[in-house]
């Protein structure tokens, strides 16, 4: 006999729906605001932020893709666009002829330095100011717990 898949109960569904809607609204608005203020996409921003946080402003291509949870093809297209605009460069990996490093260029550093304060102000206005300090701390702890749980799960 076929068993009906177990769905979410009303509280679980409400929590999930609220989380998804919050994420869509925040990311959508933040993406539009950052593009309007700095002229870069959310994808440009995340790649530049991760690269400029890394030692020497560089990361292995696959390491960067994994860090931002992107498929290899999406990262490849993004890097190609950013190389054309001079924000990043691709450099061969001396230890692995098939591997490549993605490196933030001086223009990439300048772009992220200009965009980061604007990004932070929008994050503060859209997200931080909605919560008390205690709520923010609780939100951070809950988010970390969900992330740790998700990272233990197979894809």
How many beta-strand segments? 3
Largest sheet: 3 strands, antiparallel
CATH top level assignment:
Mainly Alpha
Distance between the termini: 29 Å
Structure description:
The chain has a three-stranded antiparallel sheet with strand order 1-3-2. The protein has helices spanning 10-38, 42-53, 61-67, 72-84, 106-126, 133-152; strands spanning 58-60, 88-93, 96-104. With 155 residues, it is mainly alpha-helical. 15% of the residues are buried. It has one domain (26-152): Orthogonal Bundle (Arc Repressor Mutant, subunit A). It contains six helices and three strands. The longest helix is centred in the N-terminal third of the chain and has 29 residues, at 10-38. The chain is globular and about 55 Å long.
List the helices and strands and how they pair.
Elements: H1 10-38, H2 42-53, E1 58-60, H3 61-67, H4 72-84, E2 88-93, E3 96-104, H5 106-126, H6 133-152
Antiparallel strand pairs: 1-3, 2-3
